[in-house]
Amino acid sequence: MFVVTAADPGTGERAGCLVGFATQTSIDPFRFLVCLSRRNRTYRTATAATVLAVHVLGRDEGQRELAALFGARTGDDVDKFARCSWRPGPEGVPLLSAARRHLVGRVLERVDPGDHVGFLLDPIEVAGDGGAAPLTFRTLPDLQPGHQAG
Q1: Closest Cα to residue 103, out of 29, 34, 43, 45?
Q2: SS3 sequence, the chain?
Q3: Where in the numbering of this chain does the Flavin reductase like domain appear (predicted)?
Q4: Furthest-apart CA atoms within the chain: distance in Å
Q5: Do residues 107 and 121 touch, judged by C-beta distance below 8 A?
Q6: Which of 14, 48, 75, 99 could lock 8 by a disulfide, CB 3.0 to 4.6 Å apart?
């Protein structure tokens, strides 16, 4: 499971959501694809963003709290970034302090594979440690999504 964050360079609006559809798509050049539901605010912000940050969550309690914040709350109702520690990354994209691993990628292309939109990223910053085992769908706490995914 990943948390994707975005910032609209024109308005400064920030958004972020829990994401389950993401994958490396190429070795050389290295490319990463992350898919966002059209129904959520992060998608709307990401349409104007030039970069996205993809945070890899671990299984420890603090990471589960981030998953709950970004997966069970909607930015339409709450400022998620007022409820967690973060810092601005490249081009203002929010980087979550508690997520020890992240990839920031320049948006190369947006593709329409179905009810989500895929954002093809060219990594410009990769950071983190080997750390804890990643949080997966099976190890994710039971969450009610802020928006329906499909």
Answers
A1: 34
A2: CEEEEEECCCCCCEEEEEECCEEEEECCCCEEEEEEECCCHHHHHHCCCCEEEEEECECCHHHHHHHHHHHHCCCCCCCHHHHCCEEECHHHCEEECCCCEEEEEEEEEEECCCCEEEEEEEEEEEECCCCCCECCCCCCCCCCCCCCCC
A3: 1-144
A4: 41
A5: yes
A6: 48
pTM, to two decimals: 0.85
Q: Which of 69, 60, 65, 54 is nearest to 20 (CA)?
A: 54
User: Which residue carries 């490249």 as its tokens?
Assistant: 90
Write down the pLDDT at residue 148: 53
